[in-house]
């Protein structure tokens, strides 16, 4: 059987397994115990049955193989209900999700409501994995920040995926920051074992809202993560999204930002590091669908040994989106000859009145900088690490949350 | 301290040094002068161990050990310091962090207890003051956005902090105005001691008005063609390098 067919069969098996488990649970408890997700799961299964898993002939999957999934991650469910995996404390309110299960008690923050409501995201499905995510959801988390609410402390979501054998865990987050609100959310993905985390996050920034968003992915190298992030911006909203990640067996992020109304402003920063045999693939698309919106993206990548990183940055300026200002920079550093970074900017502009700047580079360690450090007694190895950290430091220093910045610096330097 | 014997060296396959010999004892200050392309910078880079600068024959011994067998960082830890002609900018690595790593490596190699963070910062501030460098530069990226003069003063600042046994100053005076030159000279002079040797590689005699050398050597065509006392520098200034053309020491 060809890999796409095998994966589909396994994905459907995984979805059926969850369905069976939940039905049995429902029988034991009252019939009303269902958390309202069954319709979402059913729709996910139906859609999944009609989908084809991509192979390398599909342009968006040209550099990323799904071969690592053939070990059966899709057909089994990560079943641990508690975890020893720890996550750093960034202050604020913490909510921990283990293998797709929400805690019994959701936190309380003034002006913020937490619920298990599943918001239909099928319209924005980026790939077959969106449907897999829907079909294998144990829970969904919806967070709504009320109009005009200013939440000073960050909400820290710790999302743990953990299993001893290949298995998957799905998580779905829906965050709405209503008009004139201020909110900071940290999505922190951690975990261990050969677990596939299937994540879907949608973030809505209301008119004149101010949202800081962190997406930290520090699962262990043997883990896998296929994630989708969509950001929807209303009039004059300001979103800053910081995406820091370490590559693993297979890491893929599909990110799409919709600038739906005029005056929206987006700052996006990202760091990805792929060492040894790890893989990371970021597919970013910014939809400038309204006039006078600004987007400013800087991503920096490092790959060493036989690590592989892929970056695709698409900027789509729609007809009528006059006065759009879009910037994209992706700079990459190769630490060794066996490493690979494929970086591609894509511009699609249907308008004359725009400012668009993009640049991608892939370079090696600067031998003059290295010699300078060595000539001051610093070993070649330490010099390389210093230069690697120096390369991404500009972005880390600019992180508004100092506790995240400090932790990220230690975390990322440890892999350099 | 430093014994260079009939040194031949090439850069990218091109022979630059063609039989250079030099003997430097502890406490001495030597000036090496010469026209552009004479091999002055090559000598500094060969001694510091820059990639691509290859010793093809002869030897350079630092305290009796051939530098050819040492990595650049080992040379630095043994006490060789090169003040670069063109210090490189390293954005993202703060000057202070860089000084800390460097100091730790060098102090440890010397068998000295590395300075704690507070002492290091105090000492770094002192030497910054000595070379008239604003303390804010300690927080900035290494040489990042520094002017030419600030970069040179940053080199001297590092030198004062690391207290090398052999300091090689590669055209540190080039491009400096007279005030900056005096500041640099003051820094270098403060380092003079009976245990320490200094090599001033320079194109101009002017520096030697402020740092008076014990010996002056003229380098041309990859060899030292004339050596003398400090008066040789003045003679060169008056007569120009053409005076020595075709001359053999």
Structural notes for this entry:
The complex is a heterodimer of chains A (416) and B (249). Chain A has 416 residues and is α/β, with parallel strands linked by helices. Chain A has helices at 3-28, 38-50, 128-135, 367-374, 380-397, 402-414, and strands spanning 93-98, 112-115, 141-145, 155-162, 167-177, 182-192, 195-205, 210-217, 224-233, 238-246, 250-259, 265-274, 279-288, 294-303, 308-317, 324-334, 340-349, 354-364. In chain A, helix 1 (3-28) packs antiparallel against helix 2 (38-50), helix 2 runs antiparallel to helix 3 (128-135) and helix 5 packs antiparallel against helix 6. Chain A is globular. Chain B is α/β, with parallel strands linked by helices. Chain B has 7 helices and 12 strands. Chain B has helices at residues 40-48, 72-78, 95-109, 117-130, 148-162, 178-191, 231-239, and strands spanning 2-11, 14-24, 29-33, 53-62, 65-66, 80-83, 90-94, 141-142, 166-170, 197-202, 215-220, 223-228. In chain B, a hairpin with a 2-residue loop joins strand 1 (2-11) and strand 2 (14-24). In chain B, helix 4 (117-130) packs across helix 5 and helix 5 packs parallel to helix 6. In chain B, 46% of the residues are buried. The interface between A and B is medium-sized, with 24 and 30 residues.
Quick tags:
heterodimer; A: 416 residues; alpha/beta; nine-stranded parallel beta sheet; nine-stranded mixed beta sheet; globular; B: 249 residues; six-stranded mixed beta sheet; four-stranded antiparallel beta sheet; 7 helices; 12 strands; 29% strand
């Amino acid at each position: 059987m060809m890999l796409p067919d095998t994966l589909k069969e396994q994905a459907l098996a995984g979805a059926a397994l969850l369905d069976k488990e939940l039905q049995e649970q429902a029988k034991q408890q009252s019939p009303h115990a269902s958390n309202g997700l069954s319709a979402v799961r059913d729709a996910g299964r139906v859609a999944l049955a009609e989908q084809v898993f991509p192979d390398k002939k599909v342009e968006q999957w040209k550099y990323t193989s799904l071969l690592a999934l053939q070990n059966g991650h899709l057909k089994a469910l990560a079943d641990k209900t508690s975890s020893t995996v720890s996550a750093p404390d960034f202050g604020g309110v913490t909510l921990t999700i283990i293998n797709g299960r929400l805690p019994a008690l959701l936190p309380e923050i003034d002006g913020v409501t937490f619920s298990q409501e599943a918001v239909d995201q099928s319209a924005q499905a980026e790939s077959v994995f969106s449907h897999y995510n829907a079909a294998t959801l144990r829970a969904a988390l919806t967070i709504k920040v009320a109009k005009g609410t200013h939440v000073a402390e960050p909400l820290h979501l710790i999302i743990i995926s953990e299993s001893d054998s290949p298995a998957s865990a799905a998580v779905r987050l829906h965050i709405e920051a209503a008009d004139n609100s201020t909110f900071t959310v940290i999505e922190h993905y951690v975990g261990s074992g050969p677990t596939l985390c299937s994540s879907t996050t949608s973030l809505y920034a209301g008119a004149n809202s101010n949202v800081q968003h962190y997406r930290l992915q520090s699962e262990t190298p043997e883990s896998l993560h296929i994630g989708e992030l969509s950001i929807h911006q209303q009039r004059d909203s300001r979103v800053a999204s910081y995406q820091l990640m370490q590559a693993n067996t297979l890491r893929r992020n599909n990110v799409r930002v919709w600038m739906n109304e005029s005056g929206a402003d987006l700052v996006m920063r990202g760091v990805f590091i792929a060492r040894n045999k790890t893989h990371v693939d970021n597919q970013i698309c910014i939809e400038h669908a309204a006039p006078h919106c600004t987007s400013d993206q800087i991503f920096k990548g490092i790959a060493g040994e036989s690590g592989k990183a892929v970056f695709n940055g698409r900027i789509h300026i729609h007809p009528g989106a006059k006065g759009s200002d879009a910037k994209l920079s992706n700079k990459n550093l190769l630490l060794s000859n066996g490493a690979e970074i494929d970086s591609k900017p894509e511009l699609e502009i249907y308008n004359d009145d725009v400012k668009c700047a993009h640049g991608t580079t892939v370079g090696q360690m600067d031998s003059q900088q290295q010699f300078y450090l060595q000539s001051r007694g610093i070993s070649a190895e330490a010099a390389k690490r210093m230069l690697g950290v120096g390369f991404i430091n500009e972005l880390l220093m600019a992180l508004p949350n100092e506790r995240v910045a400090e932790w990220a610096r230690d975390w990322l330097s440890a892999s350099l | 301290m430093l014994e260079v014997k009939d040194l031949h060296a090439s850069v990218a396959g091109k022979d630059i040094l063609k039989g250079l010999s030099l003997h430097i004892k502890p406490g001495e200050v030597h000036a090496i002068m010469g026209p552009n392309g004479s091999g002055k910078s090559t000598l500094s880079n060969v001694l510091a161990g820059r990639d691509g600068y290859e010793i093809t024959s002869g030897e350079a011994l630092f305290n009796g050990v051939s530098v050819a067998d040492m990595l650049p960082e080992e040379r630095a830890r043994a006490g060789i310091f090169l003040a670069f002609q063109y210090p490189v900018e390293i954005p993202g690595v703060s000057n202070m962090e860089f000084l800390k790593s460097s100091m730790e490596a060098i102090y440890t190699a010397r068998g000295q207890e590395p300075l704690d963070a507070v002492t290091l910062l105090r000492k770094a501030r002192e030497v910054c003051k000595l070379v008239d460098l604003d303390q804010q530069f300690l927080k900035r990226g290494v040489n990042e956005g520094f002017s030419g003069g600030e970069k040179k003063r940053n080199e001297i600042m590092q030198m004062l902090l690391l207290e090398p046994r052999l300091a090689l100053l590669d055209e540190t005076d080039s491009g400096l105005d007279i005030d900056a030159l005096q500041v640099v000279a003051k820094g270098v002079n403060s380092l003079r001691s009976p245990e320490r040797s200094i090599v001033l590689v320079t194109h101009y005699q002017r520096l030697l008005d402020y740092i008076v050398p014990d010996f002056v050597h003229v380098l041309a065509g990859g060899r030292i063609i004339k050596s003398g006392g400090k008066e040789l520098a003045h003679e060169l200034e008056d007569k120009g390098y053409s005076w020595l053309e075709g001359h053999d020491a």
